[in-house]
Amino acid sequence: MTSRTLSGPSRFLSARRHGVGAALLALAAALSLAGCGRTGDQAAPLAEPAPPPAPMSSPASLAGGMAMKEQRMRSAEPSASDQAQGGQDAPLQRFLAVRQDLNVEVPAEQLADAWGKVRDLCGTLKCELLSSSLLRETPQQPGNATLEVRVEPADVDKLLGGLAGVANVVSHTTTSEDKTAEVIDVEARIRNRTEFRDSLRTMLRDTVTKRTMADLLAIQRTLSDTQAELDAIATQRKMLAQQTSKQHIQIQFTPKRALVSSGDGYSPMRNALRNAGSVLAESVGALITFIAAVLPWLLLVVLPLGWLVRVLWRRRRAKAA
After folding, report:
1. Phi and psi at residue 178, to the nearest 5°
2. Which residues, listed in sequence order, are joined to residue 146 by a DSSP beta bridge?
3. For residue 284, what are the contacts with CB-CB under 8 A and spacing of at least 6?
4. Which of 41, 173, 216, 279 is 20 to 30 Å from 241 by CA-CA measure?
5. Alpha-carbon distance 170 to 243, whole Å?
6. What is the CATH number of the domain that holds 109?
7. Which domain holds residue 153?
8. What is the pLDDT at residue 69?
9. Separation between Cα atoms, residue 153 and residue 246, nearest integer Å
């Protein structure tokens, strides 16, 4: 066997290679140990202790919990301004309550017919009659009539067109009130109350949780109050729907008046002759009223006083004779 002797530079390079290899092996061993430690930590987590059983709730704590839940639901209820700000990207639906007031004139003899035609026209449209009144003309007062209806926006022009055919519109006023914020608030309250009512019903149907009779009665009482409040809010929403889905129209019928001009055709004598009959009737009526008022006093005071004066006068004459 032959052996080769390494020179000085060759021994130095060989030693350097052995040192680098040893360092790489040490680094790989450290990384593998660290990985094994992490894997062991993840593979064997500490077991958490089981939660203790929930104590039996008392009626006071149960009512307090329901009150706190209701308060949280009220605080989480979105307001009209929040919904308006949150829905800036989408167009906001507006709810307007529109009201129209009209004053029309018709000839006195056609007042009842015009009023009846408009009322019958309302019956053929999507129109709800709220109130109607008719006062016929008498010698003491002129006649008048009123109609108050709610009409779908699509049939408003038909109703006003039929009105213009039988009467002369003197004044027409239109007003509108924005009910958008009120409608949004009411709808949010309806959603909130509905969720709270459903949660109470779920609690009543729950047969796993042990509750006393007092707890069940408290839940039932809260459920009844919530349902009553929900019914009241639903009624308010229906009223808002009537105000915003239909237009409120009120029509006042008045008889047409003839204007008397004071031009060249005016004659005081003709006017006096025309009014002579009424003036004479008023004078005779005043005289009758005066006689009727004085006659009782005449019988009770004047006649006895005249008889007494006459008796005294006769006695005086007898003494003088």
Report:
1. -80, 120
2. 133, 252
3. none
4. 173
5. 26
6. 3.30.70.60
7. 96-177
8. 54
9. 6
In a domain, 125, yes or no: yes
With H, G, I as helix, E, B as strand and everything else as coil, classify residue 62. helix
Q: Quick check: 145 and 111 in contact, CB under 8 A?
A: yes
Take residue 25 and report the two structure tokens written for it. 């092996």
Within a domain: residue 173?
A: yes
Let me know: does 240 contact 183? Beta carbons within 8 Å: yes
At 177, list the tokens. Answer: 């009130």
Distance in angstroms (rounded) separating the CA atoms of residues 143 and 109:
9
Q: Tell me the C-alpha distance between 238 and 230, whole Å.
A: 12
The answer to whether residue 127 sits within a structural domain is yes
Question: Is-contact 96 179, C-beta < 8 A?
Answer: yes
pLDDT at residue 175 is higher than 90: yes
What confidence tens digit (pLDDT) does each residue in 90-118 have? 577 889 999 999 999 999 888 999 999 99
Residue matched to tokens 């009846």: 116
Domain count, the chain: 1
**Is pLDDT at 68 greater than 70 in this prediction?**
no
